[in-house]
Fold this sequence. Notes:
Elements: H1 2-27, H2 43-53, E1 57-59, E2 66-68, H3 88-129, H4 132-142, H5 145-151, E3 156-168, E4 172-183, E5 186-197, E6 200-209, E7 217-219, H6 220-226
Antiparallel strand pairs: 1-2, 3-4, 4-5, 5-6, 6-7
Helix pairs in contact: 1-2, 1-3
Amino acid sequence: MKTWIFFIIFIFLWIAPIVAGVIIAKKKNRSPHWFWFGVWPGAGFWVFIVFLFLKPLEECENCKKKIPAGSKVCPYCTNGTSLSTKTKEELTAEKKKQKKTILITVFTVIGIIVLLCSVLIVTVFSAFKNSIPYEHSIELIENNPQVKDYLGGEYKQTGLMSGSISANGDSSGKAVFSYKLKGKNGISIVYIDAYKENGFWNYNKINFYKERNSSDVVNLLEEETAN
């Protein structure tokens, strides 16, 4: 799962600002080559911020050089641009259109990032919840009268799971993670420490903490052995 967490950070801080920045640069008629700075992690984010505040450029009809959008006179050839003949209302309408286009682009990119990250979070959550160590811990809880009585009959898993789980094929793996259960007495924590060897999961710990940051713990493995 550490790979997934790294991938989420990678998307947020490295790739996404570059993609969004290149789109905005093209919308503003500016060179997207500045985003080559994005080869250094984090640099693309700051270039993206700068491009958000840069004014758009347009091409002079006479000398074909890029000049600030909204200029009535080209600073290179001193010829009047098409804007010199436009009314104030037309200029205002064009600026609003440009701002609207940029905002739509930014929000579209943000929406895609949020959607992607949501899919990744669901995938990570499913990997934990569908794992044998998680299923075994629930089985131990269901077979433990003390824990079942403490949780009540309508307990449920709540919040995100934290930790890591990995597997090398079907023969080996490791799982160290915790999750929360909400029952009649509040929120409890289940902690699992397990490793997979020769295709079978072995458990170092499966502890049920009645309260968060509490030493009031039930060792579910000991209870399983006793039974």
